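Now for today's protein:

——
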Amino acid sequence: MSAPSILIVDDDPDFLEIAKAILETKQYQVRSAQNPDEGFAKLEEEIPDLLILDIMMGRGAGGFVLARKIRKDSRFDHVPIMMLTSMTEQTGFNFPGERISDKFLPVDDYIEKGIKPHALLEKVELLLARKNVN
């Protein structure tokens, strides 16, 4: 059985390198993309076991758009999405109430950037375990 694969889509090359290094300590196969279009193309090439997606990319909320596009495509029904952002830190805006909803934010988990390595690994492991149960 091969190690789980993870695709990270984020426009911050420094974050991509750090996250990849952290995830590879657990032998995950990690691929990355720096924008939503490249991310979707890589998703179509090889469907990962988990997608980590930044909300804010480029000049807008490219991650929101990509998450919604993925959730409308049945090929990716079984791919958990972890949304990762520094939106609260950058803007002071915080999502009121339930952060994850099928209509607003169609993802499986949501975390703020600046997450500690052990916490990132814990969230990844939980999402992968949940995926394997279903």
